[in-house]
Write the structure tokens for this entry.
Amino acid sequence: MGQKEIIDGDTYRKIKKMNREEFTKFILHYGDELLGEQGKTIDLPALETELRKIKGIGGKRLEEIMVVIEKFLDVE
């Protein structure tokens, strides 16, 4: 039984040259595309609401966390 090729050769070579930050960004973007194909998306306001419920995370820290998440998701 043949396996479906998930990543083509060119993409694989690009991944091998990436540093950790570039690779993390790629994986998050790639995963988001896969979720989008399945009809799922990341609801940032809902995520923020859930993070706000975690004891010890105040408004200022939550803002910092959301900036990092948005940076990795290429949200402006």
